[in-house]
Specification:
heterodimer, A: alpha/beta, Rossmann fold, OB fold (Dihydrolipoamide Acetyltransferase, E2P), 2 domains, five-stranded parallel sheet, five-stranded antiparallel sheet, 29% helix, elongated, B: 314 residues, alpha+beta, five-stranded mixed sheet, 9 helices
Chain lengths: 257, 314
């Protein structure tokens, strides 16, 4: 009877000390297991698994370039996966229902031994793809799937000779001026190249209202709305003396209750 | 008999208690009347102050009729002129009083709001990232086996860092820039062990500025952000530079990284929003946080606060 080849594994973690620790614990718990490679991020891991074809991959979740969950999706079915994580309460609750095992950092010898026992049993079978679980993980972890729409929270603008990130909560209004859009805050004004038309799509409609073809105002910065002699609505702002005209097509925004 | 005849002396003494009160009784009454007059006058004064001119005109009209019936035109004119003058003067005084009361109320509210806000922000700031803690403990665990002296050093850095992050552990004195830099150094020392060649640190703070007052936990937030959002996402890592200088009389501290750069839609705004709120609470409009984008890439976060040397404590 021919001896079965020794099982192989790859360890993926962005910190060398952590990789060493896992390797050390595995050596104690499962001396026959051969560590064929170590990777420092998800992308390296995927390439390594494709070339070395290990039986098992120990995967950290929080990593640069490509996180562990994305890497797992790319590797699904190619190897048995064990996640190694420091603290991800959502992910852990998902693992508890799934077939994928997980280890918590710092890894405890007893827990590693248990994981190794499970892996030895499972090595006889083909690794299962577990797409559903990974999809769930990826959504819970916020690294993919359907996410609520994200709006701009910072505006990159030039103030004098410098480029600054201005939090949208500091902005009173945006106004189209020639080729530029003026960004007005209480303390200063800045210019950006993005036209109002494009800007309005990226701003949170709960935070900003368009009141004119060339003006977008932050709702919370509005002090009051008045009418001038010709019946046009004017928006008065907190923190600025400038009055902004409301064009007819946006009059409904300030209709009396 | 002697019991029927009361002792005259005793009787006069018994009866004599009320009489001495009689003369002051008149004075008392006069005083009471005076008090009522004063009271009524001030009521009239207050009424004049708040009454609308329209109502006052109606009153004048009634007075005019009364004056015509009594044939006393001079009294009427006197009353009108005096009351109009009082109205103008009293109105101004009352308005000033009201404004003053509102202003005091607002100042008290703002003060309270500020201190509550500051306390809440501090509590928020004190939260330690579990990821950081468990990963660091993991590294220490590994170093204990392979390099015990280094493990001990890292553990000491962790203890220093944790101590700073516990609000009840913070000293009562005003925090100095020197202390805050030391805490950042503790954090960066830990991260340097973990990230190895992926993290370089440059701290350029003149010795003379270390005694300047600087709010707690703000620099740490900027440094943590720079690592978490700037350097950690990059496989090659990068460099963090902390620079302190005086610019136009303001203590200006920059935390610069050459990482992946700031994400306009990113969710690293919570820590920064906290800093902004705390600066507003502590200094009003005299401090600010600026997020800059250096030409070479990465992010430069700058905090400016009024320059103030911490009082020397024994």
């Amino acid at each position: 009877m021919r001896a079965t080849p020794a099982p192989t594994a790859v360890i993926v973690d962005d910190e060398r000390l952590m990789r060493e620790q896992i390797a050390g614990r595995l050596k104690e718990a499962w001396p026959e297991l051969v560590i064929v490679g170590e990777a420092g991020n998800g992308r390296e891991a995927v390439a390594m698994v494709h070339s070395l074809e290990p039986d098992i991959v120990f995967l950290d979740i929080n990593m640069p370039e490509m996180d562990g969950i994305k890497a797992a999706q790319a590797l699904a079915g190619k190897a048995h996966l064990v996640f190694v994580t420091a603290y991800d309460q959502y992910a852990i609750s998902a693992f508890d229902h799934g077939a994928i095992d997980y280890l918590l950092k710092p890894v405890e010898p007893a827990r590693v031994a248990l994981a190794c026992r499970r892996l030895r049993e499972r090595l006889q079978q083909k690794p299962t793809p577990m797409d559903d679980l990974l999809e769930e993980l990826s959504q819970r972890f916020g690294s993919g799937g359907v996410k609520p729409r994200e709006y701009m929270r910072w505006i990159q603008a030039s103030v004098g000779a410098n480029i600054r990130m201005i939090p949208t909560s500091d902005i009173l209004f945006f106004r189209a001026e020639d080729k530029y859009t003026r960004v007005q805050t209480e303390g200063f004004e800045a210019l950006i190249r993005k036209p109002i038309k494009e800007l309005i799509d990226e701003l949170d409609p709960k935070e900003f209202w368009q009141i004119h073809r060339s003006t977008v105002v932050r709702v919370d910065a509005i002090a009051q709305v008045s009418r001038n002699f010709s019946g046009k609505q004017l928006v008065h702002l907190k923190g600025s003396d400038e009055k902004l005209e409301v064009s007819r097509s946006f009059n409904h925004l300030f209709k009396q209750m | 008999m002697s019991t029927d005849q009361p002792n005259p002396g005793a009787a006069s003494a018994a009866r004599g208690t009320p009489p001495p009160l009689q003369p002051p009784g008149i004075k008392q009454t006069l005083r009471d009347v005076w008090r009522v007059i004063v009271e009524l006058w001030w009521r009239f004064f207050d009424w004049l102050a708040v009454v609308s001119w329209k109502t006052l005109l109606v009153v004048y009209l009634l007075c005019l009729i009364l004056a015509a019936m009594l044939h006393r035109p001079m009294t009427f004119f006197f009353f009108v002129i005096v009351s109009a003058i009082i109205k103008v003067v009293a109105g101004g005084k009352r308005r000033a009083e009201l404004t003053a009361r509102q202003a005091t109320q607002r100042a008290d509210d703002e003060q309270l709001e500020r201190s509550v806000l500051e306390a809440r922000m501090q509590a928020l700031q004190a939260q330690i990232e579990p990821h950081f803690l468990f990963n660091t403990l993991g590294s220490i665990d590994q170093l204990i086996q392979t390099d015990p002296p280094r493990a001990s050093k890292m553990q000491q850095s962790l203890i220093r860092y944790l101590r700073s992050a516990m609000p009840q552990m913070r000293e009562g004195a005003r925090p100095t820039l020197g202390q805050q830099i030391e805490l950042c150094r503790a954090f960066l020392d830990i991260m340097a062990v973990r990230m190895e060649e992926r993290l370089q640190t440059v701290i350029n703070v003149p010795e003379g500025l270390k005694s300047a007052v600087f709010p707690s936990m703000m620099l740490q937030t900027l440094v943590e952000n720079a690592i978490k959002h700037g350097l950690e996402p990059r496989a090659t890592g990068g460099q963090i530079t902390i620079i302190a200088e005086i610019v136009d009389g303001q203590l200006t501290v920059h935390v610069l990284d050459n990482g992946v750069g700031f994400m306009p839609k990113g969710n690293d705004g919570v820590g920064l929003a906290n800093i902004r709120e705390r600066l507003k609470a502590l200094y009003g409009g005299r401090a600010e946080l600026i997020i800059g984008v250096p030409a070479a890439g990465g992010t430069c976060a700058t905090i400016k606060v009024p320059y103030e040397v911490a009082p020397v404590t024994a």
